[in-house]
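Fig. S4 source data, part A: sequence.
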Amino acid sequence: MSAVTASSSAPGPGVEEGARDRGPGSRAAAVLVFGSSAAVLVVEIVALRLLAPYLGLTLETSTLVIGIALTAIAVGSWLGGLLADQVDPRRLIGPSLGVSGAVVALTPAVLRTTAEWAPAMLLLIASLTILVPGALLSAVTPIVTKLRLTSLAETGTVVGRLSGVGTVGAIVGTVLTGFVLVSRLPVSGILIGLGTLLVVGSAVVEWRTRRWRGTPALTLVVVAGGLGTAVAPGGCDAETRYHCARVVADPDRDSGRTLVLDGLRHSYVDVDDPTFLEFAYVRAIASAVDTAFPEGEPLAAHHLGGGGLTLPRYLAATRPGTRSLVSEIDSGVVRIDRERLGLRPGAGIDVRVEDGRLGLRQLAADSRDLVVGDAFGGVSVPWHLTTAEAMADVRRVLAPDGLYVANLIDHGGMDFARAEVATLDGTFEHVAVAGEPADIGLDATATSDGGNLVVLASDRPLDLRATQKALDARRTGWQTTTGDDLTSWIDGARPLTDDYAPVDQLLQPSSTRRGD
């Protein structure tokens, strides 16, 4: 028994006598594990924001980033434990923190430059910018654990405590990033700041172990990352909680502005003339509304998604007295509307920063003449706004003769659009779709390129002749379909429900634009 105790109390391979005295104490070990675990989650969450303008904010992108981050954690934990058994663990902590910090600080400049100049390499570079720091930071926990283990009798206590501290760090990193950092700092600032902290942490560890060799070089890398980010292409006018946002002036129209979110054109606003509608889908929605209600009649409208508030402004200008309530989840976009796109108080437009589905629940039954669906995350409608349950809530808040009109985007086989129209067909008495003839099955001789569609739904008959006339007058080139033609177009499409709504998998997006 005494031999076992002596053996378990001896320093590990490659560690000289007295090494434990120069290893991290209990508190220092907890700080190292907590901080490195938190940093991994900060990198993961911010990477999603950084990649959204180039890969889209979809389920596939989120799954990819999470998968790479988990791979990094697995590889780092395994290699960290393996190396800690082969060499002096004290020699590993500083470089793990410092190199990961340098990579993190360089990430914004490297990714944005790659996206602009070598887009074919973007996926590989993005993977490395997550994998390398994630693995290095995940290696810290087994390395520190090795240093803290001095007796088999305390193995469970040490491993359990440090595992718990690491999990708490990951939780804090997640919550801090999602609720605080992203809403207050640009993503480039978060990553450069985190890189700086990691390099500082590396310097402290190296100082305690009397090693300074790599710290100056790593500091220069962090500085280079900051300078590179300042000149890298693809910057934003503003980084909101959800988007990289820009406002682009129209060179052909002095008062025209395009709101670009994550590289996609989301809204066009004429700040002097709200009746000027640039995008074809917006003209189609306006045509549907104009023909569904008497000219100039004020409406009670609810808008799922705000963007540049083009439709609410149009209704305020053409139907004085209209009350438009807008559910817009991104407070940063609302701020841009006010500061850059000329939204003024007293226009009959009430914007609430809220999720559209939750906003619907708060509305009274039969309280709206019109509901407009134009909410997007990237090029896809948020899945929870597409389901039969969500559409039942839309129907609940609409007056008996009310109208629901929504913008959809799809390409290829139009699988998502057909599924969404099938969902509406099971909810409302009357449904029609407006779009390019080839996209909605009216021109079998033409190739469907896909793009925007507008779907109309109501429990009262739709005057499609008048709608078509309005579409022609606005030179959209669009046609409408309903009845047997529409039934044939959606044949075989499975309606979407809260239990089954694979929107991102059904959607076949085009990366070029959102608005037509």
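Fig. S4 source data, part B ends here. The CA atoms of residues 121 and 500 lie 34 Å apart.
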